[in-house]
């Protein structure tokens, strides 16, 4: 389930649910056709086409922001708009229709909502790549040169349908034994209804040239040009205030690197690269601080977002011999117009997306692997310093210290642990059986909504998993796994929210604060069967 109030997890156990249902059902289909041909020793080509269909159905129960309003003997539901109450309009009825004309249920009893969403994403594309090899013999004054040149192009297209709605309901929340589920009453909010069709098309060209001098030095030069067109068509509204929009993004991203083999065991690599990503339709349609969305169930007409551009510098040292291998990497990525989610309501999923001028992610990665007899050992350590590098004001209306917090360059990005460590042991018992264990550790991180780094952090945690694989024959494999072997209790993420309206009367002796957490999974045992045709 989603995030729960931190104090509720302490009072009712870590299996406690804040509100429900919270369901997401997905279906996925895909096929890929690949082809390749070797023309001669110096030239070859590869091609592929693909088709994907992904459908996501979501159902989320929540408390209600609506309140009762009346006129004489008529009553209905209203929501606050610019310090005034505005009566809701019900889907399928005239705007002048009151709740009392449609239902015998008292407006005060309608204290929940059921948010539904359906996303149908159909995508397909094709790509073609040509590879050319050439060789230049060594001379008295220069090394032999091997050159590989790759040129490719492709097109990706997607048709996305999104429909969502908010049904008024009753939150079952009379006693602590109630499950806090929501039962719909069959009436929907017209203002929250969304029906959107999106078409995205991307064309791209890329090249890579790898030139090897002698046996120790390689120079790589690459680039990719992307052109993306996003067309959005509102199926309900037209004109001003609709979701209609045309968004075009294009950019050339270069990359350059050099590899130098110091000797048979050590290799040094230096690289610089640029990358970019276009805002998703959800981000493009939820970027207005004056009209925040209840993700993933609402979209509004918004100002456009800029595409994100990341520039990465990296240096690494690789050691490899018959006994073990190790890799040490230092990196720095400076992102321009990075997109973050600004919380803008009492619920953790209510807010909007916004561009931040600059963010930076820099750190160190260390990996190690070896084999001792029939046992494989792997370890990795990652240090990440993820920071905002430009000032802005974080809206964060339910921050424990109050809204509108000033964020300064150097403040850490929430939800990004600085230290992560992984250790993996795999024992090959025989040709058919292997068993193993993996240990993971993540250090503390800030709650989402605390971009200014002023409040407490989510504590670090560690977890141990074990597994067994049995290869019955060439096609059939049986696997078993225990996640969180020692049943450790920890939180994987945190955010802010307002719990008093839902829980205040149930726990009168408890003052609920703004801290919401995502509890860890308890110990879990799973068995799977894999058959390869």
Please specify the SSE layout and strand pairing.
Layout: E1 4-5, H1 6-12, E2 22-38, E3 43-63, E4 67-71, E5 74-81, E6 84-87, E7 112-136, E8 145-171, E9 182-188, E10 194-213, E11 217-234, E12 245-261, E13 266-277, H2 281-284, E14 293-294, E15 308-320, E16 324-343, E17 350-372, E18 375-388, E19 392-394, E20 405-407, E21 419-428, E22 433-442, E23 445-446, E24 457-458, E25 461-471, E26 476-483, E27 491-496, H3 500-503, E28 515-519, E29 524-531
Antiparallel strand pairs: 1-28, 2-3, 3-7, 4-5, 5-6, 7-8, 8-9, 8-10, 10-11, 11-12, 12-13, 13-15, 14-17, 15-16, 16-17, 17-18, 18-21, 19-20, 21-22, 22-25, 23-24, 25-26, 26-29, 27-28
What is the number of E strands?
Answer: 29
| Helix/strand/pairing category | mainly beta
Low-pLDDT segments:
295-302
Rg from C-alpha positions?
Answer: 28 Å
Helix content: under 10%
Report on the structure:
This protein is an all-beta fold. 3% of the residues lie in helices and 61% in strands. It contains 3 helices and 29 strands. The protein has helices at 6-12, 281-284, 500-503; strands at residues 4-5, 22-38, 43-63, 67-71, 74-81, 84-87, 112-136, 145-171, 182-188, 194-213, 217-234, 245-261, 266-277, 293-294, 308-320, 324-343, 350-372, 375-388, 392-394, 405-407, 419-428, 433-442, 445-446, 457-458, 461-471, 476-483, 491-496, 515-519, 524-531. It has a 19-stranded antiparallel β-sheet that branches. It has a 3-stranded antiparallel β-sheet with strand order 1-28-27. Strand 2 and strand 3 form a beta hairpin. The chain starts with a strand and ends with a strand.
């Amino acid at each position: 389930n989603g995030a729960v109030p931190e104090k509720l997890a302490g009072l009712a156990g870590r299996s406690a649910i804040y509100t429900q249902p919270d369901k997401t059902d997905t279906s996925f289909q895909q096929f890929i056709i690949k082809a390749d041909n070797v023309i001669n020793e110096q030239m070859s080509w590869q091609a592929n086409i693909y088709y994907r269909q992904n459908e996501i159905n979501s159902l989320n129960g929540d408390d209600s922001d609506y309140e009762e309003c009346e006129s004489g003997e008529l009553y209905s539901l209203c929501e606050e708009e610019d310090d005034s109450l505005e009566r809701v309009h019900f889907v399928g009825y005239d705007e002048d229709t009151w709740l009392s004309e449609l239902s015998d249920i008292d407006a005060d009893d309608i204290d929940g909502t059921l948010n539904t969403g359906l996303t149908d994403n159909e995508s397909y594309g094709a790509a073609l790549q040509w590879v050319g090899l050439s060789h230049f013999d060594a001379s008295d004054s220069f090394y032999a040169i091997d050159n590989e040149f790759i040129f490719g192009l492709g097109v990706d297209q997607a048709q996305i349908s999104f429909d969502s709605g908010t049904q008024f309901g009753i939150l079952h929340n009379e006693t602590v034994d109630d499950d806090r589920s929501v039962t719909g009453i069959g009436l929907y909010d017209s203002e929250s209804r969304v029906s959107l069709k999106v078409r995205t098309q991307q064309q791209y060209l890329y090249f890579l040239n790898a030139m090897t001098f002698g046996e120790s030095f390689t120079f790589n030069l690459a680039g990719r040009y992307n052109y993306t067109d996003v067309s959005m068509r509102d199926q309900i509204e037209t004109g001003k205030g609709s979701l209609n929009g045309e968004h075009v993004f294009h950019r050339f991203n270069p990359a350059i690197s050099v590899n130098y083999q110091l000797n048979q065991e050590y290799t040094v690599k230096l690289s610089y690269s640029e990358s970019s990503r276009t805002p998703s339709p959800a981000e493009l349609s939820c970027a207005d601080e004056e009209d925040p969305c209840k993700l993933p169930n609402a979209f509004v007409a918004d100002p456009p977002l800029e595409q994100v551009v990341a520039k990465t510098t990296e240096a690494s040292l690789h050691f490899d011999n018959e006994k073990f291998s190790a890799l040490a990497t230092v990196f720095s990525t400076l992102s321009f117009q990075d997109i973050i989610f600004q919380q803008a309501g009492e619920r953790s999923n209510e807010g909007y997306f916004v561009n931040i001028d600059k963010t930076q992610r820099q750190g160190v990665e260390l990996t190690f692997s070896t084999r001792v007899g029939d046992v494989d050992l792997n370890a990795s350590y990652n240090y990440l310093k993820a920071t905002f590098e430009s000032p802005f004001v974080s809206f964060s209306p339910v921050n424990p210290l109050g809204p509108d917090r000033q964020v300064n360059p150097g403040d850490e990005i929430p939800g990004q642990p600085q230290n992560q460590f992984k250790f993996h042991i795999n024992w090959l018992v025989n040709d058919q059986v292997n068993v193993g264990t993996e240990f993971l550790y993540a250090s503390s991180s800030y709650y989402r909504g605390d971009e200014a780094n002023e409040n407490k952090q989510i504590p670090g945690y560690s977890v141990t998993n074990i597994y067994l694989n049995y290869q019955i024959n060439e096609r059939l494999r049986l696997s078993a796994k225990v996640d969180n072997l020692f049943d450790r209790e920890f939180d994987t993420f945190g955010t802010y929210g307002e719990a008093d309206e839902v829980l205040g009367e149930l726990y009168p002796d408890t003052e609920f604060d703004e801290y919401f957490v995502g509890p860890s999974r308890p110990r879990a045992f799973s068995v799977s069967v894999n058959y390869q045709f």
